[in-house]
Amino acid sequence: GEDVEQSLFLSVREGDSSVINCTYTDSSSTYLYWYKQEPGAGLQLLTYIFSNMDMKQDQRLTVLLNKKDKHLSLRIADTQTGDSAIYFCAESPTGTASKLTFGTGTRLQVTL
Amino acid sequence: GAVVSQHPSWVICKSGTSVKIECRSLDFQATTMFWYRQFPKQSLMLMATSNEGSKATYEQGVEKDKFLINHASLTLSTLTVTSAHPEDSSFYICSAPGEPSGKNEQFFGPGTRLTVL
Questions:
Q1: Cα(A44)–Cα(A50) distance, rounded to whole angstroms?
Q2: Are the Cβ atoms of A96 and B108 closer than 8 angstroms?
Q3: Inter-chain residue contact A43 with B46, CB threshold 8 Å
Q4: Is B59 exposed, middle or buried (0-12, 13-18, 19+ CB in 10 A)?
Q5: Rounded to an integer, what distance in angstroms lies between the CA atom of residue A89 and that of residue A4?
Q6: What is the pLDDT of residue B104?
Q7: I need a surface site. Which of A10, B95, B114, B117 has the fewest CB within 10 A?
Q8: Which pLDDT belongs to residue A95?
């Protein structure tokens, strides 16, 4: 079945850039998502990218996709303490109405 | 944006009892909803797909008699954990797909934390 992997933990200083990486195995993945989960809360969609795109930028967020290597990354510029959370990448073969396969989650800790 | 609510937000119950969790799409209709469970410091694992007007589709390894799903209307799906045991303690999250803003997005509820004593 599908497998989505992430590093478990990342610590950065406030103001620095954060880069969270994700690898996936399903070559039929069409939509790739990044979600943010704060303690005790549900998931918030940050951004998503279609598999025919290499890059997508949305304010402080930049998503890079290397489809050949099945590698996805999320860069957060000027990281703030409010960015501290768990970040999940997820993939879906068909988009909105289909089930998502989530990565293991990366806990981002932002220090002063 | 679209809102999905869950009720209750947390519940503590005794072993052997049944617990019902509700998932509602507040301002849009959802013919499909998804139920996930999340163990501490782990990822979300899809349990089942709830389908309005038909039976739910369960993922491999999920006991359908243990986790009863009923998609009662276009805005409501319920998950009943029957004869709950301590190993069922987890964070249960539902989601519903929708495109009110033109994005390909699933909207997630805030989750229900179940603790079985």
A1: 18
A2: no
A3: no
A4: middle
A5: 8
A6: 63
A7: B117
A8: 63
8 Å CB contact of A96 and B105: yes
Whole-number Å distance between alpha carbons of B84 and B70: 18
Contact A36, A49 (CB under 8 A): no
Q: What is the pLDDT of residues A34-78, one digit of tens each?
A: 999 988 777 888 998 988 889 999 999 999 999 999 999 999 999
What is the per-residue DSSP string for chain B?
---EEEE-SEEEE-TT--EEEEEEESSS--SEEEEEEE-TTS-EEEEEEEETTS--EEPTT--TTTEEEEEEETTEEEEEE-S--GGG-EEEEEEEEE-TTSS-EEEE---EEEEE-
pLDDT digits (tens, 9 = 90+) for B66-77: 999 999 899 999
pLDDT for residue B80:
97
